[in-house]
Write a sequence for this structure.
């Protein structure tokens, strides 16, 4: 969407928009990336971007009807003002067999006048995290095309000086570049050195750099709170939706509402039932008053059992009825009676992450954190801290997001945050690392421990492949985010318990990820050509559409 809007803005600036008669869109992707792309809602996003919509402000509820209208009427309203004829079959071309050398996710827009004369053409690459670059602006940490209005981009970002190490002269002394932010960092080591030298936290370093880019204190606060508000809205939407299934021929059932009903006492009034029990820690027997979510066979049976327990039998005995227990009682290893265990932190993290990813899978608004497929990890961990740990939510949100952002920048600069380049380690792996650092920072850990948390977060995701079934960002993606969130908290806890004794630095892990990405077969890079995408057969009873 952002690429489409950037292109239209350029046409407007050049005074060409009104002359456009035809637009041709070519998408360059390897074979099944096209499948993944179409299920990332790529055509919808591009066309609505060309109509002038912005990913941050578009009313997501209108996307399906607007897309259907474009297809039905065969017309496109360029920039929201200029009508042209647009035929999807004729004007959008998927180059299944070609990948442009700049990046695997490439697209070319070309516009023609009434006589078929080429008015303008440009290539764009979606490199993850909502960032769009083209050949000219292809540099690390590129923020040029994060904003669609070039004139409002700060010079340091435009010329990329902010991503360089602290500049030094021939004598090795630091030199100040007026364009450069006060605390430039290019690696975990240089970031750590800055925190020590200036006695600052990682969040403070990022914050002061943002001030340098022309944002006021209030601007930064508002932007951070806006990001959090979208994340929180997304969780709320995911747990409160009445839709039962996700789009796509897998026919996947949405689980977040059911998970939330089981867990909640009612953070969002009206969503949780009034009779639901409080959360208890540890190994909790099946609660008596919880209602069985519709279609949950296991829980229905447990509830039925609970009613029978009123006869006075103890729960274990009641739940050991032969009708429910699988396994022989004539065996030295007796079958285990079913129990329901709640581990609140894990269950909440999972529920929040699944909620976000189900919203993403259904085309709703999420924060690319750092990417769409991995959008659930960071909101889940931050939500958990805000709800269960923080006594100052605003301070927590600022610290968490600024710290996580610093780690994301390190990955973007040193490796990749694009699954098309590095597989799922670049998406859920990086999200896990960012969330782990954010969690540790909010727990008051020192910068070295925070970066070590980030290291553990990525180290145990190295090699994670991308193999979504049927090209849908659903399986394994949705559950993978819940595991990413749980792993992030575990990584932070391990780091905080390690007293800064460790064997691998964050920079070493980022470099290992880069090498792993380079060596990884293209079959595991968002192409759905192998792994689960190949071994799992889509049920034949589900009609293809
Ligand atoms: S497997 Fe991972 S990288 Fe691939 S689409 Fe799913 S979440 Fe994204």
């Amino acid at each position: 969407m952002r690429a489409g809007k950037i292109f239209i803005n350029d046409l407007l600036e050049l005074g060409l928009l009104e002359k456009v008669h035809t637009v041709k869109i070519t998408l360059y992707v390897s074979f099944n990336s096209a499948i993944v792309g179409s299920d990332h809602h790529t055509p919808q996003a591009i066309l609505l971007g060309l109509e002038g919509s912005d990913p941050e402000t578009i009313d997501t509820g209108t996307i399906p009807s607007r897309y259907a209208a474009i297809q039905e009427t065969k017309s496109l309203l360029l920039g929201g003002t200029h009508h042209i004829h647009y035929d999807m079959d004729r004007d959008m071309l998927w180059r299944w067999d070609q990948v442009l050398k700049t990046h695997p996710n490439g697209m070319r827009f070309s516009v023609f006048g009434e006589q078929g004369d080429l008015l303008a053409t440009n290539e764009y690459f979606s490199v993850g995290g909502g960032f769009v670059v083209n050949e000219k602006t292809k540099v690390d940490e590129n923020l040029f095309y994060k904003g669609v209005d070039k004139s409002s981009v700060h010079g340091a970002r435009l010329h990329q000086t902010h991503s360089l190490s602290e500049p030094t002269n021939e004598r090795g002394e630091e030199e100040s570049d007026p364009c450069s932010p006060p605390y430039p960092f290019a690696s975990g080591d240089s970031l750590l050195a800055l925190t020590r030298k200036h006695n600052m936290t990682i969040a403070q370093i990022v914050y002061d750099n943002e001030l340098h880019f022309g944002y006021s204190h209030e601007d930064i606060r508002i932007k951070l709170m806006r990001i959090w508000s979208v994340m929180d809205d997304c969780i709320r939407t995911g747990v409160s939706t009445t839709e039962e299934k996700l789009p796509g021929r897998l026919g996947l059932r949405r689980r977040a509402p059911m998970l939330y009903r089981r867990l909640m006492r009612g953070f969002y009034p009206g969503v949780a039932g009034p009779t639901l029990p409080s959360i208890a820690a540890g190994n909790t027997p099946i609660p008596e008053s919880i209602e069985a979510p519709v279609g949950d066979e296991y829980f229905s049976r447990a509830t039925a059992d609970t009613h029978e327990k009123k006869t006075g039998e103890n729960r274990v005995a009641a739940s050991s009825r032969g009708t429910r227990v699988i396994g022989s009682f004539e065996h030295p290893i007796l079958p285990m009676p079913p129990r329901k265990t709640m581990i609140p932190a894990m269950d909440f993290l999972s529920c929040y992450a699944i909620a976000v990813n189900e919203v993403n899978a259904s085309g709703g608004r999420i924060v690319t954190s750092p990417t769409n497929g991995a959008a659930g990890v960071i909101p889940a961990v931050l939500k958990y801290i805000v709800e269960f740990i923080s006594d100052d939510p605003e301070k927590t949100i600022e610290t968490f997001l600024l710290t996580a952002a610093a780690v994301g920048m390190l990955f973007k600069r040193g490796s990749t945050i694009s699954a098309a380049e590095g597989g799922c380690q670049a998406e859920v792996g990086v999200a896990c690392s960012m969330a782990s650092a954010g969690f540790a920072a909010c727990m008051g850990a020192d910068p070295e421990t925070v970066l070590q948390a980030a290291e553990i977060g990525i180290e145990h995701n190295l090699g994670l492949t991308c193999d979504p079934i049927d090209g849908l960002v659903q399986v394994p993606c949705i559950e993978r985010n819940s595991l990413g969130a749980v792993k992030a908290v575990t990584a932070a806890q391990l780091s905080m318990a390690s007293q800064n004794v460790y064997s691998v630095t964050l920079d070493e892990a980022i470099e290992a990820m880069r090498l792993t990405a380079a060596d990884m077969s293209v079959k595991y890079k968002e192409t759905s050509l192998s792994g689960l995408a190949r071994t799992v057969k889509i049920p034949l009873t589900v009609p293809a559409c």
Remarks:
- Residues 373-374, 419, 424, 427-428, 466, 468, 473, 476-477, 480, 526 surround iron/sulfur cluster (CB under 6 Å).
- The first helix runs from residue 2 to 13.
- The chain has three domains: 2-152, 219-243+344-535, 285-326+333-340.
